[in-house]
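Database export, one record per block. Field names are fixed; values are copied verbatim from the stored entry.
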Amino acid sequence: MEGGVQLDFVVEENLYFNQVNLRGLMEPPSEASAAAAMQIQLGEVYRKEKLDAAIVRLQDILKEEGLYQAKVTVETQVHEENHQIDVIVHVSPG
């Protein structure tokens, strides 16, 4: 295009938090307390940094309950058809 302007759009697909499942958690804390501590809002845009911060908050609440050796691992399942992501958090109390 002579004398024209070319405009390229670079986009990134957003994924949205769909479910957060906690597996292996034994009270205390309750599953509701642990999920609340993570501060992940369903329907919110997924960012790895947000998930990493949520895991740190979960580890903090586990330590507050005396579970100093608890191990936390995370897996994600992407649902591309509806742009959603499930988060499965495995807790081993230690």
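Remark 1: The first helix runs from residue 31 to 38.
Remark 2: The first strand starts at residue 16 and ends at 23.
End of record.
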